[in-house]
Write a structure and sequence with these properties.
Elements: H1 2-23, E1 36-39, E2 42-48, E3 51-58, E4 66-75, E5 78-82, H2 88-102, E6 105-110, H3 116-119, H4 122-127, E7 131-135, H5 136-144, E8 152-154, E9 157-162, E10 165-170, E11 182-185, E12 190-194, H6 216-226, E13 232-235, H7 244-256
Parallel strand pairs: 5-6, 6-7, 7-8, 12-13
Antiparallel strand pairs: 1-2, 2-3, 3-4, 4-5, 9-10, 10-11, 11-12
Length: 257
Amino acid sequence: MINRFRYMGRIIVFFMCSLAAVSIPNASAQSANDSIKISDDVEVRQLAEGIWLHTTYFDVEGFENVPANGIIVIDSNEAIMIDLPWTDEQTGVLFDWIESKWNAAIKKVVPTHWHIDCAGGLAEAHRRKAESFALDKTVELLKAGNKPAPMNWFTDKLSLNCGKIRVELAYFGPGHTVDNILAWIPAKKILFGGDLVRAENSRNLGNTAEAEVESWPKTLKLVKEAFPDVKIIVPGHGRPGGMELIDRTIELCNNNN
């Protein structure tokens, strides 16, 4: 079983690279004027007051500078990171930036599924004494692959507080993976869709070796019903947008059948 997950992990790295190459023809298209480069492979961009998009880059064999997104919520000298960077080093860069720029500490981290582009920096987060949370399935998959795993888990929904800002985590069903969850910030009407949601300019679903494509549209329709007033949706790779990102992902699923 462990060998199987190691093999699957290698497939996912390649998939993430392919996905990013298709979805983001130019990383600077994500409004380069608003981006802050804090290291060679880590950028941040403000989405709303107290909400920052972080984009980190990772070289994969055959590709370079594959970007992946996450968000950081900051309020009252504390922060929550939704999806960690690819590496421990990148994670440390973001922890240091939050401390030096905002005099805040990242107290909680949440990988939205088990792949390296959102759980790769867990060891560093734990070293920095951050609490970690994830779906129970995510914890099981990471442990099966002998990877660092979150300390706390849930089976359906979980609310976390960052100062006065509430972050709601929820599982709506399988899609990109069996364990992909979403993070909703109701005060800002921002939804982090992670890899359950594709960028609007994506041309395909990428490698679907681990996806449940038949269930994916059903999951996304439940998401649409749950968040009708969403203002910003952040995909795991590519530019943020609105409800059109979910519609595009559903279209791609239907075209894949």
